[in-house]
Design brief:
With 1890 residues, the chain is of the alpha+beta class. Helix content is 41%, strand content 14%. The protein contains 68 helices and 44 strands. The strands form twelve sheets. Strands 25-24-23-22-28-27-26 form a seven-stranded antiparallel beta sheet, with helices on one face. It has a seven-stranded antiparallel beta sheet with strand order 41-40-39-38-44-43-42, covered by helices on one side. Strand 43 and strand 44 form a beta hairpin. Helix 3 runs antiparallel to helix 4, helix 55 runs antiparallel to helix 56 and helix 55 runs parallel beside helix 58. About 20% of the residues have low confidence.
Length: 1890
């Protein structure tokens, strides 16, 4: 029985204590005065009566009622029911005011004379009966207001003495009806019935749950539910207090059977708001009045009950319920809350009706019960009972539960099981013998039903209704009995605020006390009502294993996998080692699956006899390997109990090492995280203890009883009696046992636990102490070190850490070392023992004994391990595959001989066999370091692929990153040191050193690698040292003949650096020196060397700059690439100045022959004829690095020139462009320089023929007229492109020069036969400035400006800021954004990671394409191509272009080279491309050594592949125009590989000056000492090209003078396969000797074996990442040439060079084609050079029985009369759909057509084509070649005509008709009038359709 009310309190407004307008409440009276012993009076009740604060109000408020909940220190909840009414008071402020001085009074606030103050009647109780309290307090108030006859004392006394039962019985007989129905009366003529719930453990919710769902909605409540269970902070807001209480009550009710154990305050007073910032979880309700104060809470979930919203902060992640449970729960909830939803779409919806709120409430709770039953099903099978007596001690095995439920990944469940609520659940519901309730029944007995029904919502619904019925019955056992007789205050009194009501009287406390004492005395004398709890055994439900089978992830064909595991184990134990070895890889793969791992433990168990299994070395090795593999794939939680099953096995399997020394398997399987996981050991310990205790009690019972009790219902009968069942039986018997028996049992259990603890201390030392304790591997590789940090002993931690640093120690420190390992193991075991012994109630004496034993156990074990370690070192090593020797290049030498390593797979999946194909990696072999490259050679570890050789190599010079790893190999149990080496040839090697490689050796290897990668000087690179390693240093000394002069120049440079360096380097912003110093010091300080300034240089003569031996080499300069090219382009010759014709616009200047003007330029430069050398020396100072503008190419047609230079110095730009003629404050020298610069540009402009024609006109009208009359129509077709291009390139809102073709209409979009890749609208959109005209052209004004510029300067946007453009100058600046070197560097790093990832990515979003996009490599290519395309267009339309970006050696070089490649077909041949690279890249000083980080000095700057970017751009163009290049894609890859390989000297050093200084520039001609060593990559290619057609492009059939216009949008660019391909069979194919040498050897070996195998298949398997595809599957022509060679060899003829054979075939082809009568498509795929007019950019021609199919992506129009003005010609739009025979011919036939003036009438075959909207005519019907096209868009009318002169005879007059177009009139004549009419109608209908 329990008291209904503990205390009754009257709380009123405290008039004495008012703090700044804040009132306070005080307790006026409290009954009983003295506290009850069992429930002390809770503090702070007065705060909760007015949670928003105590205030006086001017008007009487309505009475209010709510229940607040207070929690005391013992976490007992007290329910405070507050009933508040308002009483009139005299206004205290008026009273005060009369006392206070008048001056202080606040200005005129009108105060009412009477105010109302709150008064609360409070009942404090431990029972939650809201309605009963409301009625009782209401009654007390009524007695007071209506002045009823009953005295208040009696009513209060009765209330305090009322006693009710806590819970009713389960079977209501008469007595119990009395019990659970308690009728109470307070003695004021009232009666109330209190129904107590049948079962106290189920919460009582009324209708609060349904109300909560109504207020917030299903998803929001589910969200709060998950948040509460996963321990988040939840805050409810509402303006109603009672609703806050209800919502909190509802949330707690749906959490049943879990109980909420954190802060729970349904109504929080405003004064205590700081509670909200507590760090612990809570459920709190706050009045909406305080909403603003809750805004800054960062981690609180706020549920607004009035608004129906739940706000989750960003930093909070709520784990949702696992699927499919979540979905099913939502469905069922919506069926309860919104039954109409299901039938909403029915035509005749049945009348459904939601249940009453009270019932709905129980249905929802039923759903949550059902949900918990599903979440926790089978939980009892994971309870470990450790002690039964004196109290049951129970632990929950979380990992096993999650593993068996296959939910080990599920975030929600893991958090719930870790939470406090679940811990309470286990301790409350764990005991096997107790009272059971609805949930116990559901989770044990109805699992089957739940599983069968879970997918069918209606069946679930029925089940839930049953549960709801039980819940409802529990709360309202007798719904029919409801006798309430209550008094309510009369209406007048509730309303009346006018009549002054008397205040609530003081109650006579003596009278009340008497009542209470009297009742207490009565209770004492009455016999105690003991209601015995019915205890019983808690049912456990079906086994977990059975539960899971349906949703457990069963691996595919697992039966076969298990068979493999079983067979392999059988082979091992039958000593069939070869068989076992073959199966091993398959077994290791199978062990990824859980079933196979379980199978392995079962199988191994069968081979253990009496806890021991002695194996021989190889068997031991295999068993250990399988154990390691199994453990490696287990998580550290060991959720499937596999580590647990292996634990007894690792101490059973062993091998004999020597006399009395045995090595157990545990010493080889220690490297796994699971052994350092405390939870794992605890769970293991508890399950073992449980088994032992079960055995203990099974022994005590006699045998026959045991047999009878074998349960029938479990057919497999694997556990006769479960431990829990035993425990419940024992608990039932416990009270019946004598004291002695009880003591005996307690002791037995305790000693069982104790002995297990000793056993586990041993086991743990086995698995934690490493075999070689001196090495201290323990702290390095396992989690023990981390576990340490939990403990508070910082000292030990730091020692442990420092010990871990010293890895290889000298023997002197061994003892100290090992003891340190021992200490940490001892500490770990001690912590374990403390924890489990305290939990399982081991006595203190025993615990002390254990602590004393542990160090001895560890020490003994260390001693045995030492012996084992010594012996195991003596074992003969396992046979390893022999190392394969690599073939070396001539002159290449080994630096370090092969070190045995494993090549591990990286993020590329092709080689691992995951994508099909054989697992080539991991492979076992050796790594070799030579002077030239780093290579791995070995064989795959998978024995099924063992015959293949795997090679991976890259040049040492291309190494970009080296990183140390520690690697666990799948086969071995040791963690090994490894390296990850990344190369910029897109290769990655992940290697792990074998155990036999000492770590010192690995270190030596790294040092050597670094030395070779970054030599001190370029001369240390392979290209220089090849074949002369010994003499290298000596020669280096001998080279410098003119030591003194050279050092002088170097010192000068240094001092110059020092003097200027200090002043300017430190500042970020560059400020140029004054003009006086400008001449003596070079002003630009870049990261590059400062070239010695002019005055110094003039003192040095030729002899000093070049070596004396090179004096004569000046003549060689003339033969250099540049000069040959200048002469080819007609840019001047190097004859003496007298004979040079003065009318040539340009000359070759030798001003830089001593490299004095500009270090990084070539010796000979092209400058305008009119500019003297002295000017040049002055101009060059305005440009960075002195790189002034020079001509590098001239367009042979338009004579426009292409210039290159560096950007201007900041000063120069502004001075130059702002106002060239305005007087300036700068000294005159500046002026003159900028004028000279202007003169220089003018000289260039005046060299252009288009300028000289138009010179003299400066007015706009003159300008337009000349241009309108220009005759070259193709230019006008091209024009519009440029504007669009400009806009795309500049891409900002700058004032963009646009273009506009004449007449305000666009011409054809096409430029010279290729459809434009530039959509003009895109350009305007990007430029975003001018509004284009409707047809897409830029606005008029811009176009006029556009046409003026004869020279465009492409400059850097950042640099040209503030430059104003002069509209009357002839040049124009195009500002663009350049990608700087840093961007290229970062982009390249990301590109390498995308193409060659170092490990498979865990993130599914980071696919190859996503990484590629993020690298932005394609964007950079697009930018470079875009600028190049713009320059090409400008050069093609008569304007010269000067590219003046950055320092003029990176982007400038790229753009200039690409422009020449696109514009000039010569550069697309072998010679031309070589010349282009030598001229633009080598001579003009691209810094190959610096950008490639080739020496120690440039190491910090990192690798920046500017040249690779250029090659990639060429590759993109090559892809789009495969017939325009003489060289193949392989040629580009070859250059890309060797420009970083340092095998040749071609791409070393930064400029011609440096090359001359080292003497590498001209040596290649004369001094060929060793013919096999090529120093120049070009010579090498030339030689190779003679032998093999690998570099030649068979599709090559160029068109004369064609300018290429590639598509350059990112979507048109392809990833270069150079980045992604690899050939593991032979390594990179770019070192031809290595690859070729291998091929030659193969044929000799084959004939030795007699061919017995019968007919052989010609087929062979080709693996994509292993074989060289171009070799195994050569293209047809290569194949034919190879066959030709082999046939010649067989016939003994001298084999012809492939090129001659090819040329012969081509010439015969041409002759044949000429002999054919009519031009048709050539029968050959390639020899169509004579048909160049039919070429397409990507065409393929197939000859097929007379008709030709032309597969072309883009075609030229066949139109001969492309209109220039008027509408855009439709023919061009349709030129893509070009077909020959099967055209769209709507109507066709023969017509006579009158020719031009004085030409005869001729019959022609006419075709009317509706689709293309044109009338075409051909010579004959069979003809493929269209003679002409009349565009129907231009036809004005079709009218009957008259026969003109020379018309065909005898044809009727009506057969004539005329076709009038905008240009001319065509006269036609049909065969007869009928035919003529038909033609006219057809044409007419075409016109009307259009």
């Amino acid at each position: 029985m329990a008291r209904l009310a503990d205390y009754f309190v009257v709380v009123g407004y405290d008039l004495d204590k008012r703090v700044e307008g804040e009132g306070q409440g005080r307790i006026l009276q409290r009954f009983p005065e003295k506290e009850w012993e069992d429930s002390p009076f809770p503090q702070g009740v007065e705060l909760f009566c007015q949670p928003s604060g105590w205030q006086l109000v001017p008007e009487r408020q309505p009475t209010s009622f709510f229940v607040a909940v207070l929690t005391d220190i013992n976490s007992e909840r007290h329910y405070c029911a507050c009933f508040t009414f308002w009483e009139g008071l005299d206004n205290p402020q008026l009273l005060k005011a009369s006392e206070v001085d008048e001056a202080d009074e606040e200005p005129a606030v009108i105060r009412p004379a009477q105010v109302f103050g709150p008064k609360s009647l409070v009942v404090v109780s431990r029972l939650d009966y809201t309605e009963v309290f409301r009625n009782c307090l209401g009654l007390i108030y009524t007695v007071h207001v209506d002045s009823l006859s009953a005295p208040l004392e009696t009513v209060v006394g009765n209330l305090l003495t009322c006693v009710i039962p806590i819970a009713g019985g389960s079977q209501p007989d008469q007595e119990e009806i009395e019990e659970s129905l308690r009728t109470i009366t307070l003695g004021a003529g009232d009666r109330q019935v209190i129904q107590t719930p049948i079962n106290d453990s189920l919460p009582v919710s009324g209708s609060s749950v349904a109300q909560l769902f109504r207020q917030l909605g299903i998803l929001n409540v589910l969200c709060l539910f998950c948040a509460a269970l996963t321990e988040h902070k939840i805050l409810f807001l509402s303006s109603s207090y009672q609703r806050l209480t209800d919502a909190c009550r509802g949330l707690l009710a749906i959490m049943f059977p879990l109980k909420y154990s954190f802060t729970y305050v349904p109504i929080l007073p405003g004064k205590l708001l700081e509670v909200l910032s507590t760090p612990t979880p809570f459920i709190i309700g706050v009045n909406s009045f305080f909403r603003s104060e809750t805004q800054e809470l960062l981690d609180v979930i706020i549920a607004d009950l009035d608004g129906g919203t739940v706000t989750i902060p960003e930093c909070v992640h709520i784990s949702p319920l696992p699927e499919p449970i979540l979905q099913q729960t939502q469905t069922v909830l919506s069926m309860v809350l919104d039954p109409d939803l299901e039938v909403a779409d029915h035509a005749f919806p049945p009348s459904t009706q939601a249940s009453a709120l009270k019932i709905q409430d129980k249905e929802i709770r039923g759903i949550f019960l059902w949900l918990f039953a599903r979440l926790f099903q089978g939980y009892r099978w994971c309870l470990h009972i450790i002690r039964i007596h004196p109290e049951p001690v129970i632990r929950f095995h979380k990992a096993a539960f999650l593993g068996q439920r296959t939910l080990s990944e599920d975030d929600f469940l893991i958090k719930v099981l870790d939470g406090m609520a679940f811990a309470g659940f286990v301790s409350e519901r764990g005991p096997p013998y107790r009272a059971i309730d609805l949930f116990d029944d559901l989770v044990a007995n109805q699992v089957e039903r739940i599983q069968q029904e879970e997918t069918c919502p209606h069946k679930v619904m029925n089940h839930i209704r049953e549960l709801a019925e039980q819940l409802f019955k529990n709360e309202n056992p007798y719904p029919s009995v409801a006798m309430h007789k209550l008094q309510r205050p009369s209406e007048i009194n509730v309303q009346s605020s006018s009549k002054k009501s008397s205040p609530f009287p003081l109650i006579d406390d003596v009278a009340v006390e008497l009542f209470v004492d009297h009742a207490a005395a009565k209770l004492k004398t009455a016999p105690p009502v003991v209601k015995a709890e019915v205890k019983s055994m808690v049912p456990s439900g079906p086994l977990l294993g059975d539960v899971v089978d349906r949703n457990g992830s069963v691996m595919a064909n697992s039966a076969r996998r298990l068979e493999v595991v079983r067979n392999c184990i059988t082979y091992i134990f039958e000593d069939k080692m070869l068989e076992a070895k073959k199966l091993m890889p398959a077994v290791l793969r199978a062990l990824k699956g859980r079933a196979a791992r379980v199978c392995l433990t079962h199988e191994l168990n069968q081979h253990v006899l009496q806890n021991r299994a002695v194996l021989d070395d190889q068997q031991f090795d295999y068993v250990v390997r399988m154990m390691n593999c199994t453990l490696q794939d287990c998580s550290h939680m060991d959720e499937h109990g596999i580590a647990a099953a292996l634990l007894p096995l690792v101490t059973a399997f062993c091998r004999k090492l020597g006399a009395g020394i045995t090595q157990f398997a545990y010493s080889c399987v220690q490297e796994h995280m699971v052994w350092t996981n405390m939870q794992f050991w605890e769970a293991m310990f508890y399950s073992d203890v449980q088994n032992h205790i079960r055995a203990l009690y099974l022994e005590t019972e006699d045998g026959n009883q045991q047999n009878n009790s074998a349960q029938q219902d479990r057919p497999d009968g694997e556990r006769e009696i479960g431990a829990l069942e035993l425990a419940s039986e024992q608990s039932r018997l416990w009270p019946t046992l004598s004291k002695e028996m009880q003591m005996e049992r307690v002791q037995k259990e305790e000693s069982t636990v104790f002995s297990q603890a000793i056993h586990y201390a041993n086991r743990m030392s086995y698995l934690l102490l490493p075999l070689d304790t001196s090495k201290n591997r323990l702290l390095r590789n396992t989690g023990l070190g981390d576990v340490e940090s939990v403990s508070n002993s910082y000292v030990t931690n730091s020692i442990a850490g420092s010990m871990a640093e010293s890895y290889d120690t000298e023997s002197g420190f061994e003892d100290a070392e090992s003891s340190d390992v021992a200490n940490s193991v001892v500490r770990f075991i001690n912590r374990f023992v403390d924890k489990v012994c305290n939990e399982s109630g081991v006595t203190n004496e025993h615990l002390k004994a254990l602590h004393a034993m542990i160090p001895d156990i560890v020490q003994m074990h260390i001693e045995t391990l030492d012996a084992v370690h010594r012996e195991s070192k003596r074992l003969p090593p396992i046979q390893k595959p022999k190392l394969l020797r690599p073939t070396l290049l001539p002159g290449e030498e080994l630096v370090m001989d092969g070190m045995r390593v494993h090549l591990i797979s990286d993020g590329r999946e092709e080689a691992t066999g995951l994508m099909g194909g054989p697992p080539l990696l991991p492979a076992e072999g050796a790594i070799f370091l030579t002077t030239y490259r780093l290579m791995f050679k070995g064989t795959p570890t998978d024995p099924l692929v063992g015959e293949q050789v795997v090679t991976r190599s890259f040049p040492i010079a291309s190494l970009t990153k080296e990183k140390r790893l520690s690697v666990t190999l799948p086969m071995d149990q040791f963690v090994q040191e490894g390296l990850q080496l990344r190369s910029c040839t897109f290769q990655l090697m992940k290697i792990a050193f074998d155990e036999e490689v000492v770590s010192d050796l690995a270190e030596v290897f790294r040092k050597h690698m670094h030395k070779l990668r970054y030599p001190q000087h370029v001369q240390g690179t392979f290209a220089f040292t090849v074949g002369q390693s010994g003499k290298m240093v000596v020669e280096h000394k001998a080279k410098d003949k003119n030591q003194s002069l050279k050092t002088l120049s170097k010192n000068l440079v240094k001092t110059a650096k020092r003097t200027i360096g200090r002043q300017y380097v430190t500042r970020k912003k560059y400020s140029p020196p004054t003009w006086e110093n400008r001449s003596s010091l070079q002003s630009e300080l870049d990261e590059d060397e400062i070239s010695v300034s002019e005055e110094v240089d003039q003192t040095l003569t030729l002899s000093s700059t070049m070596r004396s031996s090179d004096r004569q080499t000046m003549s060689n300069v003339v033969e250099r690439a540049c000069c040959r090219d200048y002469q080819r382009l007609g840019l001047g010759t190097l004859s003496s100045s007298l004979t040079r014709s003065k009318n040539e616009p340009f000359r070759i200047s030798t001003v830089n022959r001593m490299y004095t003007v500009c270090r990084s330029y070539p010796g000979l430069l092209i400058v305008p004829q009119s500019i003297p050398d002295s000017t040049i020396q002055r101009i060059c100072r305005c440009y960075r690095q002195n790189r002034f503008p020079v001509v590098c190419w001239r367009n042979p047609r338009t004579k426009a020139v292409l210039l290159r230079s560096a950007g201007l110095h900041a000063k120069g730009v502004v001075g130059f462009f702002k106002s060239p003629n305005a007087p300036s404050a700068v000294p005159s020298q500046a002026d003159s320089t900028s004028l000279e610069q202007e003169k220089y540009l003018h000289a260039i402009i005046s060299s252009m023929p288009s300028y000289s024609e138009s010179s003299g006109r400066n007015t706009l009208s003159g300008f337009t007229s000349t241009h309108m009359s220009a005759s070259d129509s193709s230019d006008k077709l091209r024009q519009p492109k440029i504007g669009a291009l400009m806009k795309q390139v500049m891409g900002t809102k700058d004032d963009v020069p646009g273009t506009f073709s004449r007449g305000g209409k666009w011409g054809s979009i096409r430029g010279s036969g290729r459809l434009s890749a530039y959509n003009p609208d895109v350009g305007t959109r990007l430029a975003g400035k001018e509004t284009p005209q409707p047809n897409g052209g830029p606005s008029e004004a811009l176009f006029l400006r556009q046409q003026r510029a004869f020279l465009y300067i492409i400059g850097d946007k950042a640099q040209l800021k503030g430059g104003k453009q002069d509209s009357f100058q002839q040049w124009e600046v195009v500002p663009i954004e350049v990608c700087d070197v840093r961007q290229v560097k970062n982009s390249f790093k990301k590109l390498m990671k995308a193409c060659v990832p170092s490990s498979p990515t865990p993130d599914p979003n980071m696919t190859f394409l996503r990484c590629l996009e993020e690298s932005e490599w394609m964007t950079l290519l697009h930018r470079v191509l875009q600028v190049s395309a713009l320059v090409v267009e400008l050069l093609d339309t008569d304007s010269s272009v000067m590219v003046s970006l950055e320092d003029g050696w990176d982007v400038t070089t790229q753009v200039v080279s690409l422009v020449q490649l696109l514009s000039d077909p010569y550069y697309r041949t072998f010679d031309g491309f070589r010349l282009l690279v030598e001229k633009e890249w080598l001579s003009f000083g691209h810094r190959f050594s610096h950008r490639g980080a080739q020496t120690l000095a440039s190491q910090s700057s990192g690798f920046t592949p500017v040249f690779l970017q250029f090659l990639d751009c060429v590759h993109q163009i090559h892809l789009q125009f495969p017939m325009e290049f003489e060289f193949s894609q392989y040629y580009l890859k070859f250059l890309a590989y060797h420009y970083v390989s340092n095998r040749f000297r071609t791409f070393l050093l930064d400029s011609d000056y440096e090359r001359i200084e080292l003497g590498v520039l001209y040596e290649e001609k004369g001094e060929r000492k060793s013919p096999q060593v090529c120093k120049s990559v070009w010579d090498y290619i030339e030689r190779l090209n003679k032998k093999t057609p690998i570099f030649f492009n068979f599709m090559f059939s160029p068109e004369d003078d064609e300018v290429l216009r590639p598509y350059i949008f990112i979507s048109n660019l392809k990833v270069w396969d150079f980045y992604t391909e690899e050939t593991l069979s032979e390594g990179p194919s770019y070192d031809w000797e290595l690859v070729r040498g291998r091929q030659e050897r193969l044929p000799e070996e084959t004939p030795e074996k007699p061919d017995t195998s019968g007919p052989k298949s010609q087929r062979r398997v080709v693996w994509p990442c292993y074989d060289n595809l171009s070799k195994t599957l050569p293209d047809a022509i290569t194949k034919l040439l190879q066959d030709l060679q082999s046939l010649e060899a067989e016939l003994g003829q001298p084999s012809e060079k492939w090129k001659d054979a090819w040329d012969k075939i081509k010439t015969t082809q041409r002759i044949e084609t000429k002999l054919e009568s009519k031009p048709s498509f050539s029968g050959s795929l390639l020899m169509s050079s004579n048909l160049s007019h039919q070429r397409r950019s990507q065409g393929v021609y197939l000859q097929e029985s007379g008709s030709s199919i032309n597969l072309a992506l883009e075609c030229e129009a066949r139109a001969t009369s492309t209109p220039v003005t008027g509408r855009q010609s439709t023919s061009t739009l349709y030129s893509q759909f070009q077909s020959t025979e099967s055209e769209n011919r709507s109507f066709e036939g023969i017509l006579f057509k009158k020719g031009a003036l004085l030409k005869p009438w001729k019959p022609r075959w006419f075709v009317l084509d509706k689709t293309k909207h044109q009338l075409r005519y051909y010579e004959t019907r069979q003809d493929k070649e269209c003679k002409g096209v009349i565009d129907l868009a231009e036809v004005e009318s079709v009218i009957p005509g008259t026969p003109a002169m020379g018309a065909p005879k005898n044809v009727e007059e009506k057969a004539f008709f005329d076709l009038k177009t905008t240009k001319r009139v065509y006269n036609f004549c049909a065969q007869d009038s009928l035919n003529a009419q038909l033609w006219m109608d057809s044409v007419q209908s075409c016109l009307s359709d259009a």
